[in-house]
Amino acid sequence: MVLNTNTPNPAPISYAQAAVLAVQREMELDANVVVLGEDVGRGGIFGQYAGLQQRFGAQRVIDTPISEAAIMGAGVGMALAGLRPVVEMRVVDFALCGMDEIVNQAAKNRFMFGGQGRVPLVARMPGGIWDASAAQHSQSLEAWFAHLPGVVVVCPSTPQDNYSLLRAALQSGDPVIYIEHKTLWGAQGVVDENLQIPLGQAAVRRAGSALTLVSWSRQAGVCAQACEALAAEGIDVELIDLLSIWPWDRERVLTSCGKTRRLLVVHEAVQAGGFGAEIAATAAEATGCRIQRLGAPRIPVGYAPVLEAQSRISAEAVAAAVRAMLQ
Coil, helix or strand for 208? Predict the structure, then answer.
């Protein structure tokens, strides 16, 4: 079903529907925007392409064989030839099969050839813990791509973010690693089609003065729950949702750290080597504020619920970390 939110007071739509709408709008505006990947013709495994092949045809919404290397390689070639492909990797875990095309082709082409070639593709690779899906389907690998020169890395948290940032990614002209959380697809929210969110701009979800709390993706929502609980105790936390991992909004984060003098960075990814370390180091160098990180232990995500829970960072754990820093 093709979506239309051009009404004065649109009804809430899901995170997945917001993505469909974003791709639909860009395909309507630019005939060079195409989609390729496994199962995109039937709407994608999360419904993030629902109705697009019926609207735009199989020449623009292209079902592919099961080969991530071939899909990503074809996307890079399409981009170099002037198209703007949306390259579907199904989940970030499967994108590892196409890493050479991402790391050595998409990311480096513009640099290696003096700007003569551009690779304006968006690689969608849903990340994060996927309920009861275990170690090979529940990874958070945004730090890998943030470490890679030549790509933009985006982690939208809400339906509005997913709509606005996906459109911004398709318009950017550079390769974008676009990581939607695997369990956010059903999240509901009103989407303003006219709202533009630039790549690299964070959102202040909650203003406060006691401590700066920085997170992204699904974990930003968990942190918002912790902030609600802390507010009931009279603890006023400033919550910043990065949205873009690279480039990240240093100015907004450092301004907040300068005000609160305390920083807690929380992410679902493994804490060791996580992107939170980059934020922490930058804040330490620039402001000298007190800093703590909170991430998952360095273990594979388990299948059994009791094991999977060991890799999750709960709102209670976030709140406890905040209280400890304020003592």
Answer: coil
Sign (positive or negative) of CA dihedral 93, 241, 298, 132: negative
Q: In what order do the strands lie in the sheet with 262-270?
A: 203-206, 237-241, 211-215, 262-270, 290-296
Bridge partners of 293, per DSSP, are 265
Query: Which residues are paired to 181 by β-bridges?
Result: 127
Q: How far is CA 311 from CA 13, 128, 227, in A?
A: 29, 11, 21
Q: Number of helices (H) and strands (E), helices first, in the chain?
A: 13, 14
- Domains of the chain by start residue, with CATH: 13-189 (3.40.50.970), 203-326 (3.40.50.920)
With beta carbons less than 8 A apart as the criterion, state whether 137 and 125 touch.
no
CA 133, 137, 140, 142 dihedral sign is negative
CA of residue 133 relative to chain centroid, distance: 19
Q: Which residue, 124, 128, 129, is CA-closest to 98?
A: 124
What burial class does residue 134 get, using C-beta atoms within 10 Å of its C-beta: 0-12 exposed, 13-18 middle, 19+ buried?
Answer: middle
Q: Which of 137, 147, 181, 267 is catalytic?
A: 137
* Residue length of the chain: 327
Active site residue 181: no
- pLDDT tens series, the chain, 327 aa: 445 555 555 899 999 999 999 999 999 999 999 999 999 999 999 999 999 999 999 999 999 999 999 999 999 999 999 999 999 999 999 999 999 999 999 999 999 999 898 999 999 999 999 999 999 999 999 999 999 999 999 999 999 999 999 999 999 999 999 999 999 999 999 999 999 999 999 999 999 999 999 999 999 999 999 999 999 999 999 999 999 999 999 999 999 999 999 999 999 999 999 999 999 999 999 999 999 999 999 999 999 999 999 999 999 999 999 999 999
Q: Are 51 and 20 in contact (CB under 8 A)?
A: yes
